[in-house]
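Onboarding guide, step 5: your first structure request.
Type a short instruction followed by the sequence, for example:

Predict the 3D structure of this protein.
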Amino acid sequence: MTSHITVQPVNSRVSVRVGDVTVADSEEAQLLTEGPLPPRHYFPRGHVRMDLLTPTESITHCPHKGDARYWSLIVGGEELQDVVWSYEDPISEMSDIAGLLCFYDEQVTLEVIN
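The system replies with structure tokens like these:
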């Protein structure tokens, strides 16, 4: 694994909300830490309200993880553009996050429930 990146299971329930709407809830989330960047929670797709997501054309590349694809989140008529991403086919060292979904915590309410 890339030495400055760690991925580990979260031993708690993790929930993501926009207003009063829960958009993700899981006891199987993974926590990715990458150097000085904010830690990020990655969720299994089956634990995310995919009906609220719309794929976008956005793609970014990380030399340590691979290409990320993005989704917008639409809740109560409000659209949060490119707020969700996934590494569908990450580099082999990042296979633990393949297909998992991550949210920009800065735009949603993320809560770790012990």
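Each response can be followed by summary notes, for example: The mean pLDDT is 95.
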